[in-house]
Amino acid sequence: MVTDPRLQIFDNLSTAVLAFDADLHLIAINPAGEQLLQTGRRSIAGKNISQLLPRGRQLKKVLERTLNRAQSFSARGVHLAIAPGKVIVVDCFVSPMYDGSQVIGLLVEMNQIDRLLRLTRDESALDRHEANRAILKGLAHEIKNPLGGLRGAAQLLQQELQSKELKEYTRIIIHEADRLRTLVDRMMGPTQPLKHEPVNIHEVFQYVRKLLLAENPIGLTIIPDYDPSLPDFIGDKEQFIQAILNISRNAVQAMDGKGKIILRSRVTRQFTIGQKRHRLVLRAEIEDNGPGIAPDMLDAIFYPLVTGRPEGTGLGLAIAQDVINKHGGLVEAKSQPGQTVFTIYLPLENGDD
Questions:
Q1: What is the pLDDT of residues 30-39, one digit of tens each?
Q2: CATH topology of domain 5-115
Q3: CB–CB of 248/261 below 8 Å?
């Protein structure tokens, strides 16, 4: 690619910048642009806009209009299909480049707005999770204290009663008090501190896969789709197994034990979790081909006691989210009939980049 030295100043910008000649062939792209389009400059050098973004007709029209009128234009909410099944939304600002009075090319600035919306949504989700945990702690305290008194009173009463029939009632009170206490403890998720040891996501996936196939030997297919180059992350293996198991079991139950699950691992670069940007992030996905999650349920599925199944407790996903958040990670869910994907993001290093 022939690169104008004057354009190298854009290499240090976080905004994606692309330069095209008058025939709309790419002549330069900065690292932020490579990251946005998920490609390398060598592989796209000299490509025409139609080759670079085959389904980018909206952007191509803006570029052609800028050339024809020799004036800057902006376009908001432009959808770009950068890969099969991968569409991003960007705001574009296109300005002509001159040599004297002649327009010799275009400079295109792109800001990915769906990423900004995701960051806002993720920060809101993390804030809600922290608020929910604070409420749950207070609620657990208020429930467990009277439960202890109720159970103690029932035990004392049981010692005074002579009738076996009446003692049966006190046993029921004690049993139900214990059941409620267990339910409250489960709502709070794992209470033991995290271990900090190297954890291999593929070992976790394989353990969960074997367990689910043993529980559902007929009709269930679990396909591993792993990136073998992924390094370990630091965390608590047992707690993380529980998180993956809770999400996967939810998928199995949604499909009535018959269907396909894909356990996928990938690496994502320059990804922000909360307010911290990480150079490398593990992306672990659990995908199923079940009926999907109702749209009105999708935003609430990680809340405790929210469930779409009459026999469900609504605690599995809440516990999974709690474990993942404790690891400094994030979990998201997308769903449509025939495809539900839970995506877990975990930092592979602690520094900000």
A1: 888 888 887 8
A2: Beta-Lactamase (3.30.450)
A3: yes
